[in-house]
Amino acid sequence: MKAVAVFLLVLCYLAVSHAWNCKVAPRLYNVKQVDAGQGKVVARDSNYYVYFLSGSSWYRLGSLRLKHVSVGPAGMWGTDTSNKVYKYIAGNFVGATGLSMQQVDAGGDGQVVGVSSSQSSYCLRSSLALAYKGVGSLSWNSLSRTMRYYSCGPLYGCWGVDTSNRVYTQRITPTSCSGTGWIYVSGISAKMIEVATDGSVFAVATNGQVYQRLTAVLPPSA
Questions:
Q1: 8: DSSP letter
Q2: What is the per-residue pLDDT across 34-49, written as a single tens digit (0 to 9) for each?
Q3: Does residue 12 carry a pLDDT above 90?
Q4: Three-point CA angle 189, 18, 195, nearest 5°
């Protein structure tokens, strides 16, 4: 996660020559995880506090402690150290009953996906994710594959890393969470993967190196 934090705390863009041009982002100390979506950036530090980047300053979002946080079209979601799921609603993180999730991602087209405490992959339909106001239990759809990390984007589907560090992709219908068959993507052994709102796919390899996939694999429609 240190490699992820260092990478994501640096704002980069890909030049025509495919070389990275980077500048240091607004400083936040002891960052362990960062997520960006729809122009928003959130982070959590070594004390498990969550921060939101506004302009050139970081602002702490309350006193709740989360181990993973994600922001995107579905809003802001996170999980705590007990694998309980939270959604940021009207200025506060509100807990949800249902599955225990160790990682969630809000970067898809309204749906929320993630990995449960038993390392199974799940999807929360866009209608449920967007409408959730803190009342009732969340009903997750199983995606029938063991994963250690899972992320979606609205353009090029969803990408995940399984427990053997293999990379897979599939397309999911946000309204139903029905998915196409999983496609194995060769090239690297990864420990995490993220999909940006613009369709960019980034991965952190098991050796800590950061990669961007330049040739998109577009799964068939679900």
A1: H
A2: 999 989 999 999 999 9
A3: no
A4: 50
Strand-pair category, 92-96 with 49-54: unpaired
Per residue in 50-88, pLDDT (tens digit) is 999 999 999 999 999 999 999 999 999 999 999 999 999
Look at the block and give the residue holding tokens 């939101």.
52
CA distance 163 to 57: 36
Distance CA 49, CA 5 (A): 15
CB contact at 8 A, 192 and 3: no
101 vs 69: CA distance, rounded Å? 12
Which residue, chain included where needed, has tokens 């992820």?
Answer: 4
Q: What is the dihedral of CA 92, 98, 100, 102, to 10 degrees?
A: -50
Q: Quick check: pTM over 0.85? A: yes
Examine the pLDDT at 170 and tell me if it is beyond 70: yes
* Side-chain-facing half-sphere of 11: CA atoms under 13 Å: 11
Enumerate helices (H) and strands (E) in the chain, giving the number of each: 2, 21
